[in-house]
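In the previous chapter we treated chains in isolation. Here, by contrast, the input contains two separate entities that must be folded as one system, with a combined length of 719 residues.
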Amino acid sequence: MFDILIVDDEAHIRTLYRTVFIDSGYRVEIAAGCDEALKLMEKTPFDLIILDIELENESGLDLLNIVRQRFRDCAIILNSAYSTYKSDFQSWLADAYIMKTSDLGPLKDEVKNLLGESSVEPTRT
Amino acid sequence: MTIAELQSEIEVPSKNRFEYFFQSDRLGVFLIDPSGHLQQVNKQACYIFGCENDDAILGRHINKLEFLLSRPIVEEIEQIISGKPQFEVSEFPGTNLQGHFAYHRLICSRSCDENGNFLGVMGMIEKISDRVKIEKEQKKRIDELSILSEISKVVASALDPDELLKVILTGVTAGQGLGFNRAFLLLKDDASNKLIGRLAVGPADAEEAGKIWSALEQDERSLTDILSLYKEDSLSEKRRPSSLIDNLEIDLSVDSQFSKAINNRQALFIDLTDASDQSTIDICTKLGQKQAAITPLISRDHAIGLLVVDNAITGATITDSDRQFLNLIADQSAAALERSYLYRDIKERALLLEESNRKLAETQSQIIQAEKMSVIGEITAAVAHELRNPLTIIGGFANLMLESQRTEPTGSEYLRIITSETQRAEAVLTDLLDFSKASRMENQQVEMNTVVGKVIDMLAVRFGKDLARVKLEPGEESMPVWGNPDQLIHAFYQILTILFQELPDGVVPCLSTYVEDNSVKLLISFPGQGNNNGQLGKLLKLYFGAKDAAKRLALIVAEETLRHHGGQLGLASNPEAGPALYVQLPLNKDKGYV
């Protein structure tokens, strides 16, 4: 079973994603900010992180940079309401970039891809 | 005593009149008997007729005096003998027996004795050559001054350099003007130190001269008319020997009369028979000149060109007087030419300034447009973000419910979240609509205190009694700003609403307005908070990063509105007064602030 960490400052998003991915058969942890996320990662190794960019008073891109250096085996999906960060070169460190949408299908597919559960190549939608 | 003086004494009895006048040493007096023979002459008359004494002339019949007195005059004398009382010729030329030419004045009258018997014709003749010469000289001067005046008048009104050059050369060559056959204008090019042929006026050859001058002879136009006429290209082209000066360049570093005239600022007369340098000979040969007068055009002690005139067609001699007059015209022309160049420069600069102003206005308009687009872009991005999150949540939970057909109690929790997020999305749309409505008004002068007053009224409706916590300190009466009143009221309302919601109980904000450094400020401070300042500072910092999405969007819209009006929302910190929020807008000085 894969471990997934969801980092988002929106409580309802965290609730939604946790429900959806638990239902999909993953172990899910949630964090509202960067510090909380790092603490969880030091305690438990995660296979994948779904990371929001615009966090309260901080940027998910900073956390992305740290995770890439310290936890090289962890897959990262950037998940944002903004499409503009796609052109920010920092975002290229992530394995995928998925826009937030009510259809959670693309996000779930990407998680499967990155965890090797699907033959479909990772994407940056 | 002149004839005029003698005429005043005409009342002298006729018997003695002849004797009386006969004594004059300035008047020639003579008496012709009734048969037409010269009977008596005085010494001065002998001198005028050109004989040493009266023997050589006495007894001559008037028909034999035609060497001096022309036939019409002799006929007039004959009419007096026949009974006509008198006649006068005020000016007539004549040559005396010694061959001297002179101008004379003559009066003849009948002379009778006391009984009225006809004695003969008494004549008084006066030599007036000196006076005629002076009068002619005066007339010439007056004519010259008149020409100078007419040319100056036209030159002064010409502001275009090309038009001016044509007027100068036409004035120099027109028969009613200086009357030279041809005129050339060479302008100095400082960069190459050369004189460059610029303009020429005059017939190209004798045949063309004949045609043009005979046409002009029948033309009764004044000099002013001709000068005005020759401003037009079509007419001046006909009199332009332009081929002669095409590509004409005179190197001023090479010795020639032309370079001497420019370098020494000296008017010169060139006669090829006396010319010593080859360069002058070459130039004059090219221009077809044997004689020429050259005059430098000097403006502010600087030679700007050369005026060259000749009589190459008629071969008439150029006199000293002609040259002096040419110098006067050249002085006038140089000043006018300099003025016209300045006028052209100013005109060009004015055009450049106009173009710069136009570009500036265009750029300003583009900047304003870009600022508007920037505001719209920021707000659109914020709206998109704030709507995408609730939509993701609503859609996500709805899909979950649909997929799993979940029931109570989990399903009702999802429904609660959906309802909450829908309200959030509605709030975002309400803010957007409020801003859109406010955007429709035109910019105008707005009083800061009026804006704050209206916002306080609106807040009173929303917060009711709680608003008693606010302390108001309005500044001077008139603090105008320039902007959209509805947008500003909307922005202030959002800023103050969010602040009041975040403030802890017991904290009384003070709203004061004032003018500082060309800005109108609304300061929201918290006096008397003492040890609470640290907590308040933290609160105000958090205020700018409000967690609530609707509040965050409202703040973005308010800040963008202020920025669009040239103002800002800021955080102030003073060790004594404590932390404070301020809203700053530019003072609208031009629109009424005293």
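Chain A has a mean pLDDT of 89. Chain A touches chain B through 22 residues (CB under 8 Å). Compare these points with the single-chain example from earlier in the chapter.
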